[in-house]
Automatic annotation (TrEMBL):
Organism field: Adlercreutzia wanghongyangiae
Domain of life: Bacteria
Residue ranges, annotated region (Disordered): 126-178, 198-255
The keyword Coiled coil belongs to this UniProt entry's keyword annotation: no
Protein name as it appears in the record: DUF1385 domain-containing protein
InterPro entries assigned to the protein according to its UniProt record, in alphabetical order: DUF1385
Amino acid sequence: MAKQKSDLSRAFSEDGAVKTHVGGQALIEGVMMRGKYNWAVAVREPSGAIYVEEHDLKSGKDKNGWMYWPLVRGCRALVESLMLGFKALEIAALHAFGDEEGEQKAAAEADFVEAEAELEGAAAVAAEEAKRAEREEARVSEGGLKPAPTEVQGGVKAAPAEVREGEERAGFSWKRDFGHPDEMVDGLGAQRTLEVVSEADAPARPRVGAQGGASTTPEDNPGNDPVGGDLGRPSAAKGDDAGKRDASGDNSSAEDEFGHREMVISMVVGLVLGVVLFIVAPAAVTNLIVGEYDDHTLAWNIVDGLLRVAVFVFYIWLIGRMEDIKRMFMYHGAEHKAIHCFEHGLPMTPENARQFPRLHVRCGTAFLIMVMVIAILVYTIFPLNAIISGFGVPDGLPKLVLVIVARIVLMPVIAGISYEITVKWAGSHPDNPLVKVILWPGMQMQYLTTNEPDDAQMECAIVAMQAVLNREEAEKAKAAAAPAASPAA
């Protein structure tokens, strides 16, 4: 029996003949795919449906050709990926959990309708009771009945009732009184009167929605009652209700705006946290372990780089314990399987995609690891010691701050070099033995950043990729039709 290959081995040996430029990113309950002309997001909604949203990609090559030069294009690609990634995450967050508030409202509306039905039943009982009271009064006047005394000895008031002369009132009996609404209401302790509270007496209470916006539940807004006229509610309530619906629309847009602000704040906080975790903290610890930078430059940069990799690996492992991130890593695996399926020329179905490994040689995880490796070389070559001695930077905190600032400033250069190696060169020569050596650390990291997906997640990835492929086919058809149409013109 042949030994089963690992996903790492299969990712290299089963790389498809078609090398697509389409890439993707795992999202919250979804996948984003990016092509030449557009990018598409497919998100699994709580209802089970797949929400798809597409956006055009505008190339700035004609106006800013220098941004597509080697090294520079890596920085541009990194910034674009960050911006698109956060926008895609914003879309996914809105639709992956967007119906939860609606479900809460629907449940509240159902409770409100049930309460209305109970009130209507009580109102019907009260009306029947009033009719029975009128009939009893008529019998008193015609049949020689007299009303029961309203007081007894000791001045304690008794409930009014009509009884025959010389006959004491008996307690409630199911056998005798079942079918007599007045006795039923009295005996079971039901409410005898129905009080209708107007909107002025009970103002609506806003509650905080899923995204922080104010919304109004059906219980808080009695104007939504379709039978309000029957209960004697003023007709102006309908107009008020219409106004509240308009306000609800404004609140919805306000909630979307608030969600966008949250995403921007998250992006800024994430960048700051990344600088602190992967640049400032390793540099500070290295300075404590090795000493001053200019005294042990090579050892300083090696220890700093190893600490940075260790922090990154531990961070990925730690967040991978969270349930939501586990599912996101499953969508990451689904994205890879969908791309494998296309590159092998098979129909895009979950059944076909399922057979491929969850690792992929052109994954962006390899780019991140390459950034950390290239950083060690660039920081070592950069003449920071000359700057330190030339400006006479003192030991201690000033020198450490200069080292940290130099690392942040050199990040675009490092990103550009890493892009040329991992994306342009290694992506075009996957069979080269040196490529396998260079990509090996990144491939190992994919064991942490991907999980085996289910068919529903692969379906989501396929839908996103199909949206991108359909656009590219349409652009090809348009380009092919243009020369044929020009002679006729």
